[in-house]
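Feature request, filed as a ticket because there's no other form

It would be nice if the structure record came with a short human-readable summary line next to the tokens. Right now we just get the raw output. Example of a typical job, pasted below so the devs can see what we mean:
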Amino acid sequence: MIGRDEIASIIEGYCRDDLRIGVLGSHSALEICRGAKDEGFKTIVVCERGR
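Raw output as currently delivered:
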């Protein structure tokens, strides 16, 4: 698994205000988005219509 420090060094190269964490809708996606929000990221979830 990639370490937190390595992720942080990659993210430093981007404008954090423009970053979004994107996932496909699922119960796991809810957990991912919650963690992303806790870390201050904006999120986007893609779902199938009617589900």
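Something like this underneath would help us a lot:
The beta strands are 20-24, 42-46.
Residues 27-38 form the longest helix (12 residues).
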